[in-house]
């Protein structure tokens, strides 16, 4: 077992025992695959770790996981010296998925062919990815829908003017992404708790599950 162990899963029709996922284990330090299990159940994981001597299991210091509870339970039971950490990729992925669902919900309530529908349908990536430089494409290009020259910043501003709750959801998403990128060991706990308060105060239904995840997995 590596000192820094990553546990995750991949969807596969090779999964067994009624599951849809294979469990994969990697050496995080050396970026290499170390083990593939036929499913991700607690039973299978327990059987795997029980087959390994305690002396070897004791050498594992870190385990990174997604928010699948059996991974945490098994790691804490069988790896006595381990610190469990949720991989930040999975946290941000859940956050962005919540935002996307909210954006689609708003879009589906717009009149088909309206400016609101057009923006949310065709330019949502301005709010969901970093692939656009908002200030690069000046003076912009001719936009056939609006029949004028527009750059990415113009379209971005129109998107944020569509719905105050969408704007708030976007701002919270970006605040968490900035925290995820810039927080340090010294300030991360306070910044995290401040973010939880902001998400709570916003009272956005789209983030209810994400907020629960933040609270339940605060330590990790």
Could you walk me through the main structural features you see in this protein, from its secondary elements to its overall organization?
This protein is an alpha/beta fold and 220 residues long. 49% of the residues lie in helices and 16% in strands. It contains ten helices and seven strands. The strands form two sheets. It has a five-stranded mixed sheet. A two-stranded antiparallel sheet has the order 6-7. Helix 4 (88-108) runs antiparallel to helix 8 (164-182). The longest helix is centred in the middle third of the chain and has 21 residues, at 88-108.
Spell out the key features of this protein.
elongated, two-stranded antiparallel sheet, alpha/beta, 220 residues, 5-stranded mixed β-sheet, 7 strands
Write the layout of secondary structure elements.
Blueprint: E1 4-11, E2 21-27, E3 32-37, H1 42-50, H2 54-57, E4 62-65, H3 69-78, E5 83-86, H4 88-108, H5 115-122, H6 125-128, E6 141-143, E7 148-150, H7 152-160, H8 164-182, H9 188-202, H10 208-216
Helix pairs in contact: 1-3, 4-5, 4-8, 8-9
Nearest-integer average pLDDT: 95
- Uncertain regions: pLDDT < 50 for 5+ in a row? none
| Structural category | alpha/beta
Helix share bin? 40-55%
The radius of gyration is 22 Å
How many helices? The count is 10
Distance between the termini: 21 Å
Strand % is 15-25%
Form type? elongated
- Please tally the β strands and state the result: 7
Oligomer: single chain
Instruction: Provide the spatial order of strands within the biggest beta sheet.
Output: 3-2-1-4-5
Order of helices and strands: EEEHHEHEHHHEEHHHH
Largest sheet: 5 strands, mixed
